[in-house]
Amino acid sequence: METRADFDVNKTLAEVVKSKDTRLWEGFPVLLVNAAKEPSFDYDQILKNLTKSEERKTLHFLSLLSLALCQHHHLSFVWARQFKKSLSRPDLDRLQELKNALVRNKAVSFGNKQFDPSRLKETFNNYFVQDAEKTKQMKEQYGNLSLEYALSQLFSPKQKELFQKKLQGEPLTKTEKEYYSRSVKKKVSALANPDLHRLAQKLMDY
């Protein structure tokens, strides 16, 4: 759920609660986890958008279900920890019932609605698989940029080009080989020196 500056995540979650749409309710845990990343997220504001007692009970149930899914997948979030602290003994018992239902693949009931535990887990899990892949790609991109910056600090553009060609196993011309041996190889040898690496790391700590 991408958010814009004018996008009210609290109102959106409240509208999902009001919808009484089972499929939307099944996706509520993912929406809640995503919305909680936003600085504007405020559980009390969601409650303020729900004027009916029935709607507030629905929000409470969906929040319990979201917490159960988080715990089932061994995930921890600030909102989840805060929400759990506010739970009564009956709420904690209900939370355990929901977790047991997820483990045993038993249908989850709320009022006249039933939720398929397999679909709940699949929807929730798919989101985090995609989120993890996105995070991995961002880390890889950051790593590539960091490496590019480091290389640019050590090598001239031509030296960096030869370094990368050699690394990728591409053939060098006679002139390139001579230049590589004369200029690049010495720097590479220095970089490979474990004592130099250790000293550089030590200096970074100061």
According to DSSP, the number of beta strands is 2
How many individual helices?
Answer: 11
Number of self-contained structural domains = 2
End-to-end span in angstroms?
Answer: 42 Å
Percent range of helical residues: over 70%
Low-confidence blocks of residues: 1-5
Largest β sheet strand count, sense and barrel closure = 2 strands, antiparallel
Structural class: mainly alpha
Strand line-up in the sheet with most strands = 1-2
**Average predicted confidence as pLDDT:** 85
Please indicate the percent range of residues in DSSP E strands (runs of 2 or more): under 5%
* Shape assignment: elongated
Order of helices and strands: HHHHHHHEEHHHH
Gyration radius from CA atoms, angstroms: 27 Å
Give descriptors for this structure.
11 helices, 206 residues, single chain, 2 strands, 3% strand, mainly alpha, elongated
Please characterize this protein's 3D structure:
This protein has a two-stranded antiparallel sheet. It is mainly α and 206 residues long. It has eleven helices and two strands; from the N terminus they run H-H-H-H-H-H-H-E-E-H-H-H-H. The chain has two domains: 9-130, no CATH class; 155-204, no CATH class. The chain has helices at 9-19, 22-26, 28-35, 43-48, 53-72, 78-85, 89-104, 117-154, 157-167, 174-192, 194-204, and strands spanning 108-110, 113-115. The chain is 74% helix and 3% strand.
